Amino acid sequence: MVSIATENACVDFPIFDAKSRSLKKTVLGMVGGNIASGGKVPIIEALRDITVNLEHGARVGLVGHNGAGKSTLLRLLAGIYEPTRGTARVVGRVAPVFDLGVGMDPEISGYENIIIRGLFLGMTRKQMEERVDDIADFTELGDFLAMPLRAYSTGMRVRLALGVVTSIDPEILLLDEGIGAVDAAFLDKARQRLSDLVDRAGLLVFASHSDEFLMQLCDSAIYMEHGRIKQQGELREVLRAYKGHEVYGRGEARPAEPQAS
Amino acid sequence: MAVTASTAPSISWRRAAEDLSTGWAQRQLWGHLGWQDIRQRYRRSVLGPIWISISMAVTAVALGILYAGLFGNPLETQLPYILVGFIIWGFIAGCISEGSDVFVANEGLIKHLPSPISVHVYRLVWRQVLFFAHNLVVYVVMLLIFPQPLNWSLLLALPALGLLALNGAWVALAFGIVTTRFRDLLPITQSLVQLLFFMTPIVWIYEDLVNSPNESIAARARLAELNPLLHFVEILRRPMLGLSTEWRHWAVVGVITVIGWFGTLVIMRKYRARVSYWV
User: Fold this and answer.
1) Rounded Cα gap, residues B186 and B182, in angstroms
2) What is the pTM of this model?
3) How many CA atoms lie within 13 A of A30 on its CB side?
4) Within an 8 Å CB–CB cutoff, is residue A92 touching chain B?
5) Helices and strands of chain A, counted as H and E runs
6) What does the alpha-carbon distance between residue A169 and residue A104 come to, in Å, rounded to a whole number?
7) In this complex, do B112 and A98 lie within 8 Å of one another by their Cβ atoms?
């Protein structure tokens, strides 16, 4: 059963500056006890008391200002960061799409990159080879797939990464924004494929600043502020609290604006 | 992948063991990446990975001729000794120096894709095994020119290599985790490996110096016995040169393997989950 459950999960990053990130201080620090203020490593409290329960079928949007903890929360849910306090339990095959460039090797061909990316996402070689044609078709890269990745433009790389992740069937799909470099026509195509994928995936968490995209893919939302969950609930309600005004999806009738007199 | 159904808390023996076993289960991934690393290094060069063997052969032959002259040894003993020693040393040094960098070098992957940290270590050790296999070409050529009194003990080379890989894995895990936290250890490890190269009998023939009529030289040479790497080199070099089996080297390596893995599991249990915070 696909699920994500965290309870009072906290994520604290120690910031080792050039001085304290060395043996010298620790070795010397053992002699003479703790120096209350100067001896400790500064800590960034990235996430505080995160309690979420996501079940199969959840479509959660993640909103909040820059630095509110959206990306860190996604990584907590992916199991990349295990909470420093509290618990996090992730059951299911996770496919994170955070930085589309990571795990891509510029020196090898697009085709080989597809295979490696797939292996990282828990697929087997054989499964990926079966999907290559489909990915080539979707990305419209054609003969470019035989070229080394360094010959690709940014947009072409994004196409490749999106092609891979939308061709596999993850149980938990974690999306961070950053799908901006592709042209409008491809974006429309990608949206369709993403929402198909979301229908297949058991669970989706999607961090975005685009209301339109959120309305299309999600039904509930989490509003992050200063590393805490400020609000959690139905998408429209949360967006209203976050934006401070009513939010409408594409093609929805907007009520007439009050006449300015 | 990343089916974290485990209910065990972050800091537990079980999670440490699970990291190792789920990492092992992703053989296809690290196996592929290990190959890729080798092909990558020589991409766009005409001879490709053959350069690994060529540079090994050139160094070993040059040093063989030099030291045969310096020590007054016949070339047919000095050169095979240095060559085999070099091949083995390449494996050991690779595991130690690349091992301490293993998590820092894979920062991007660790922060963006959930996977057991052991995957990176398996990939590294596998890459060293492939390098080793590649250098065996030079070894075979050497056998044709300078035949060695090989015998059935050559079969011991296989478990010996296995033990080297097993130890390479714990070294990379333990050193990798500690170095990720304390970055100063990286240059320290690199220079230590350099130093150990001279302390380990690779270019100088251990048995010759130990049996030297000059008592002070012999006493000094015997100190090499305290160098753990001597025993690792010997368990593999002796069968490859057809020398008699010295079981004390195997015993030392066995003890180090057990203690090393125990220590590494202790570190894994406590700090495995911290690696993604530290990189």
Assistant:
1) 8
2) 0.87
3) 4
4) yes
5) 8, 9
6) 20
7) yes
